[in-house]
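User: I'm putting together notes for a lab meeting next week and I want to include a structural view of one of the chains we've been expressing. I don't have a solved structure, so I'd like a prediction I can at least talk through. The sequence is below, exactly as it appears in our construct file.
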Amino acid sequence: MDLTRIDAPNNVHRFYRLEIMPGLFGDWSLVREWGRIGQPGQVRVDWFDTEAAAKDARFDIQMQKAKRGYE
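Assistant: Thanks for the context. Below is the predicted structure for the 71-residue chain, given as C-alpha cells.
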C-alpha cells in the first residue's frame, strides 16, 4: 500500500509504503518505508506471529497517516 502527502506551497512531497510479507518460520512482517518522493527512504521491519496481527498494525498506521494528510 502506497500513501503520499503532497503540499506544494510548503514543499512537502512525502511517501509512506506499507507491505506485509511472510517470514521463513511462519511469522509475518510489516515492512514500512518512508521519505521524500524521488529519494530512497528509511525502512523499518516489525515482526508479528500472525497475518491478522500484521494487518491490524498496518490498518492502525494507515489511520494515523490519514490524520496527518496522507492519501
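A couple of points you could mention at the meeting. The two ends are 10 Å apart (CA to CA). The chain has one domain: 2-67.

User: Perfect, that's what I needed.
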